[in-house]
Amino acid sequence: MHEITVALSLLEGVETTAREQGIDRVSAVHVRIGALSGIVRDALLFSWDAVTAETICEGSQLRLEEIPLVVYCERCLGERAPRPGSGLLCPECETVSPRVVRGREMELVAMEVPA
Amino acid sequence: MSKMRVIAIARNLMVKNDAIANQLRDRFAHSGTLVVNVLSSPGSGKTTLLERTLERLGRRYHIGVLVGDQATENDAKRLSRDGVAVRQITTGAECRLDADMIAGALDGWETRRFDLLFIENVGNLICPAEYDLGEDLRVVLFSVTEGEDKPLKYPLAFNTSHVATITKIDIAEAVGYDRAAATASIRQVNPAARILELSARTGAGMDEWFSLLEEMIRTKSLAPAG
């Protein structure tokens, strides 16, 4: 549901950088989204097309890199990827591991512009 | 194909929100105001819990309430009563409150006298979880009818909350609520959360909620402003 807001923040970020660098056309935008962000891929892609109409990003590709959830297990002393739907349980030893290492990302990474 | 040039941006989308949230946190540290952000799905009982809380604490403390709602002012009306200042934030298309909306809604309000500020977030467990509103205490609610695995379905909301409150406990037996399962799923995403079970309607478990708030109000008002 907040994909529209996220798309608008992405656009704002792209436009700011584009203005600074005198860019008037963007062909692709790279984004990193963590599994815990609750963002639905298709909804974000749809929102991107909607919010970029008549902007420098019109018709651009939104390239999503989805980052799986990774926690730090205090018992295994290592990074582990919990099974989907198991909360923050270490898949090896079942210890609850509230230290989230990756999976909360919502980052605008880069943009591609015609050379 | 024409050639492309890649320009690195590396920008966290939450940076702006978090900066404003930290300004709010400073502001409320100076005024000694305890800020509580209340999250839940629609219908878990946020407004009813706040109604009972205002009845109980409204005479003893200066309380402000910010109510987020996508469309209506019904909740703000329900919460309005003597001695309590209520403001509505109608979010429209937005499914959550962000720090900028809070800062805007506080504009021109005498918040310095508040001992306690409640923020009733928009009914939604996904989007609000991402947004720091400068709160001291994040409370997530879910009722006994919602399914004991709710914390596993919305891990971020439960992981980032200090208190997980199970509401409508008066009907627990009728709906076959499984306390052990609910507690286990909360613990699975947040082992440190304080778990409360209560019924705003019958008053069961409410004393623990009130004491928690009163203790935190006291601590916050004594803490030296940073």
Please characterize this protein's 3D structure:
The complex is a heterodimer of chains A (115) and B (226). Chain A is α+β, with helices and mostly antiparallel strands. Helices cover 27% and strands 29% of the residues of chain A. Chain A has helices at residues 3-21, 41-52; strands at residues 28-34, 61-67, 70-73, 78-80, 100-102, 106-114. In chain A, the strands form 2 sheets. In chain A, strands 2-1-6 form a 3-stranded mixed beta sheet, with helices on one face. In chain A, strands 4-3-5 form a 3-stranded antiparallel beta sheet, with no helix packed on it. In chain A, α1 (3-21) packs across α2 (41-52). The termini of chain A are far apart. The mean pLDDT of chain A is 94. By secondary structure, chain B is an alpha/beta fold. Chain B has 9 helices and 8 strands. In chain B, 48% of the residues are buried. A 7-stranded parallel beta sheet of chain B has the order 4-3-5-2-6-7-8, with helices on both faces. The N and C termini of chain B lie far apart (57 Å). Chain B has a single domain (15-221), classed as 3-Layer(aba) Sandwich (Rossmann fold), CATH 3.40.50.300. Chain A binds chain B through residues 1-2, 4-6, 9-10, 13-14, 17, 21, 23, 27-28, 36-38, 85-89, 96, 98, 100, 104, 106-115, and chain B through 2-14, 16, 93-96, 124, 126-127, 129-130, 151-156, 159, 185, 187-192. β6 of chain A pairs antiparallel with β1 of chain B, so a sheet runs across the interface.
Furnish the topology, listing elements before pairings.
The complex is a heterodimer of chains A (115) and B (226).
Chain A: H1 3-21, E1 28-34, H2 41-52, E2 61-67, E3 70-73, E4 78-80, E5 100-102, E6 106-114
Chain B: E1 4-12, H1 15-31, E2 34-40, H2 46-57, E3 63-69, H3 74-79, E4 84-90, H4 99-106, E5 116-120, H5 127-130, E6 137-143, H6 150-153, H7 155-159, E7 163-167, H8 179-189, E8 194-197, H9 206-222
Parallel strand pairs in B: 2-5, 2-6, 3-4, 3-5, 6-7, 7-8
Helix pairs in contact in B: 1-4
